[in-house]
Fold this protein.
Amino acid sequence: MEGNFQEGGFTIPSKGLYPFQWKWDSAFIAIGFAHYDIEKAKMEIRTLLDAQWENGFIPHIIFHTENDSYFPGADFHRSELHPQSSKKYRSTGMTQPPVTGFVLQEMYRIAEDKESMLAFIKEQIAKVYQNHTYFYANRDPNDEGLVYIYHNWESGTDNSPVWDDIWETMNPPEYEFERKDTTHVDASQRPSKREYDHYLHLIDIAKEHRYNDDKIAELSPFLVQDPLFNAMLIKSNQALLELYELIGGYEFEKANLMAWQKKSIENFNTKLFDPELGAYVHYDLRNNRLIRHISSSSFSPLYANIPNQERAEILVKTMMDKFGGDDKYLCASFDPKSERFNPRKYWRGPVWINMNWMLYYGLKNYGFDEVAKRIKNDSIALIERDGFFEYFDCRKDNGETTRIGYGGGDFSWSAALLIDLLKT
Ligand code: GLC
């Protein structure tokens, strides 16, 4: 984490592979810093929120510096096309899961000097609230309390097999470009060229309309209600409510937050739960259908207290039946029993520490202490054995004698969240 900290007051996810500030990375990183350098934790969040647009939007990558080791960079994304984009920083025109609300609350939980942390929260909370206002005003065309994402990179789970169902509905042009990620990481662990064509095409459609939300909602072939993204929003709503309680006042904001919570949780439970699979799934808003695959995102609603106890038990049973065999570490990012599962490839199977961290607290919420303990111990064991990598093979025996993790090395959130797990 120290090695990845930059002069501009933010931390990059991993040297070489990810040389800028990423939204949800920064938030998870702040949780780690809060345990030993509270000022750095505050700085991380301040820098992130400083890049907020005038309409409340917070971008997924903030390009603080010129760096040609990453594609697609600032010149491809061209955030300046949007009339309300930040005049201070160039960024992407897409976002990532809304984690900043609950991260402020986590920082409050961890901080020893509560008064000073509350003063910091008072200074920043309006920005997070504005961000939620942005989502409900612009990303919920049917007024369901469920917001859409228009790009797989907005989900955080970049190349999940869930998106294959969307790619089948598209036929983007063949782009010519120079990949940079595969100069840092073995290509077998990264998305394919054809997948990148889809990713770039979606950005081009949004750019053609200057990142206008209404146009994106009307035209983007990718329009998905993602259970992870919406669970993070709901968890952050709850955190904002509780933080406003602590601060006192803010009746207007609290009333809105309560109304959002009610609608969001209700529709989340009716629309995104698949009783046959025993799991929450994604909804393809463009083609009006459920995308019926189980991924680690399917269990994330536990973290936001979305299911009732009975449904939580069904979820944990699904998790243990499909992901929890003795030959595996918890929790694979995609259903190990599916033919789309790939234990080495990014979000198509490997274990990610941020998801494990979320599931740990989610399982505790419902009293599944044994499974929570296992997920914590598995996370520690993987990092101990394989190093501070970006993602990990869930198989206890993959036929190799020397094991290492996959993707980027010295990965910041793996370190940050390990600190939190060890201190809990
Ligand atoms: C990858 C991950 C994404 C993360 C980013 C930076 O793109 O899929 O979730 O934010 O790397 O670490």
About this structure: The chain has 16 helices and ten strands. Residues 13, 18, 22, 24-25, 156, 158 surround alpha-D-glucopyranose (CB under 6 Å). The chain has a mean pLDDT of 97.
